[in-house]
Amino acid sequence: MTWTILVLVIGIALFLFGGMLIKQDGKKPEPATIIVKKLISLISIILIAGCVCRLYTPYYLTKTNPSILQEMVSAMQEQQQAEKNKAVRSYVRSNIGEMMADAPVWGNENAKKTIFLWSDYSCPYCRRVHNELARVMAERDDVRIVLKNFSIHGELSDAPAKAVIAAKIQGNDKASALDRKLMEKEYYTAEDRKDPSKLGEKVHKNVMALAAEVGLDTAQLERDMRGPVVAREMKNVRDLAQRFEISGTPYLIIGEQAFPGAIPYEQIMNALDK
């Protein structure tokens, strides 16, 4: 702002007194002198106009017509999202097999339409979108949900994420059942969190109890949670999150479009039908 005002003062000074800088011999000015004076006047006008625009524009955008700023931000976000969707579309088309290889699948594994869901079992927004997806799955048999269990809350997230991935080895139906159970029930309490040194142990124990409720072989599940399939899938989830710039949950890829946040049922259905 200071530099703008300074340049404005210089522009005004040039406009008013710039002609005095040019020496003039005789009463009749030389053609070259006339051209130089006109050039100085032109430069001064350009400086004045530019500075006035620079000074007035912020006032106009913030005081007179702030809605333009909102429109600009919205347009920029839409453009960024379109570019991200393009990158997602390209990658999913070429790598869908790798993205699904070790991931649990909710619904018909051979369905024509795919939703990739990055989710964390300790995330309340994930529970909200889980309910919306349950409505979708109740109405559609042409949709599958590929669960990408994103462990972002440490000990609150690790055990349930690994357990659902490991449950896939015993069957996608068992993995889906455990996924629903973890989303519908609290698998840790405020009491569990009082002693941080034992939190991971308590969460693990609670997750195993829920796994037993849905009919999983918990001894096998324990072994598989430490096995290569779970390690490979957890790495795949993190690598894809980095590629798609996923910093939080939930995050959905529906068809070939990316949707950060807990989007509603109607938006999910519209995306599936595009």
Give your account of this protein's structure.
The chain is of the alpha+beta class. The protein has 2 domains: 2-65; 83-272, 3-Layer(aba) Sandwich (Glutaredoxin). 62% of the residues lie in helices and 9% in strands. The chain has 10 helices and 5 strands, in the order αααββαβαααααββα. The chain has helices spanning 2-17, 31-64, 67-100, 124-139, 158-167, 172-184, 199-213, 218-225, 228-243, 265-272, and strands spanning 105-107, 113-119, 143-149, 251-254, 257-260. A 5-stranded mixed β-sheet has the order 1-3-2-4-5, sandwiched between helices. Helix 5 packs across helix 9. The longest helix is centred in the N-terminal third of the chain and has 34 residues, at 31-64.
Secondary structure blueprint with pairings:
Blueprint: H1 2-17, H2 31-64, H3 67-100, E1 105-107, E2 113-119, H4 124-139, E3 143-149, H5 158-167, H6 172-184, H7 199-213, H8 218-225, H9 228-243, E4 251-254, E5 257-260, H10 265-272
Parallel strand pairs: 2-3
Antiparallel strand pairs: 1-3, 2-4, 4-5
Helix pairs in contact: 1-2, 5-6, 5-7, 5-8, 5-9
Number of domains: 2
Q: Hey, roughly how much beta strand do the residues contain?
A: 5-15%
Strands in their spatial order, largest beta sheet: 1-3-2-4-5
Broad structural category: alpha+beta
Label the overall shape: elongated
CATH class of the largest domain: Alpha Beta
CATH topology of the largest domain: Glutaredoxin
Order of helices and strands: HHHEEHEHHHHHEEH
What is the helix fraction of residues, given as a range?
A: 55-70%
Strand tally is 5
Question: Mean pLDDT across all residues, rounded?
Answer: 85
Total number of helical segments?
10
User: How does the major sheet shape up?
Assistant: 5 strands, mixed
What's the CATH architecture of the largest domain? 3-Layer(aba) Sandwich
**End-to-end C-alpha gap:** 48 Å
CATH superfamily of the largest domain: Glutaredoxin
Weakly predicted, low-confidence segments: none
User: What is the radius of gyration?
Assistant: 31 Å
